[in-house]
Amino acid sequence: MTKFDLHLHSNNSDGSDTVFELSEIIKKEKIEIFALTDHDTVEGCFEMQKYFDKGFICGVELTCLLDVIKCHILGYFVDINNEGLKKLIEEGKILRRKKLETRIKYLKDVHNFEFTIDELNWLYSRHSVVKTHLANILVKRGLATDNISAMKKYLDGCKTGNTRFDGTKAIQTIKNAGGIPIWAHPLGGEGESHLSKEEFLLKLDTMVQNGIMGLECYYSRYNQDEINFLLNCAKKYNLKTTGGSDYHGSNKTVKIANLNTENSPVDFEQLNFNL
């Protein structure tokens, strides 16, 4: 059996592990095939490829709005030096900076909370700042016991507007960079209500029409019925199938290489996803 995990995050986005720490965990867990898929950045891939001669797939997870569908698009085998991809990522940094500044102002105006200069410098130095980073600071300040409760209490009420990539453009950019665009956790991600079959199928038609090439069918928060449903949909639409844990280190409770709610093993050969 070939152990794999095609959805991992480092501290280049909202994971807690450095790339080196993550590489050591991957070796310890004997994961043979894996992808680093940080949110809206490929910075960690430059370092990760130094630690592995084989089994590593350069990836990215782009935060998108496709038509009216909020979604995350995974890009696998992307050329991390591709100019179009680098340009899109730079555009994303501007969008995330706008979102960060809106949240900083919201915390000050609504909750009378101000970040220190050191905290602000750290936030602005990140390649990809997300809500988790702010929540972790709130936890360190003793305002919440964990980042989930911190986000719910202090940040979920903040309206940031649309700061997502255009989904169609993101899919095409991944393809132009030699990559394969996959719809990440298509029934819903961490902490989200899962779509009904009817809701999903309506969205799937739109995603396919706009160039998506596969579905993340195996996922740490999906049970076997949900996985089988996604596998059948992928077969019907002739889509590739992938699987990933969505591991974030200590920032989430997900274990690395956990590909379903039962944490039962899945062989890479079960995927329709050739290397």
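The above is record 1. Record 2 follows with the same two-line structure.
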Amino acid sequence: MGFSTTHLIIFLVIIVVIFGTKKLRNIGSDLGGAVKGFKDGMKDGTDKAAESPVAPTAQQVGTSTPVAKETIDVEAKTKV
């Protein structure tokens, strides 16, 4: 009870009639641009992480006891 080739062809013809070829082409190019932008963003993110190994440090204000780096104090204000 799956889709056969004729079902898929009929489905594609209905989609083309409803949306038109110009709108489908625009949707395809927009989707392709979004995927390309996402891939470029992912590539830029890895390059920037490799270039700057030193993470910005934050100073905690208002605490008198030292806090481990793994601990996150939600109420503390940070200076950057």
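The helical segments are 5-19, 21-51.
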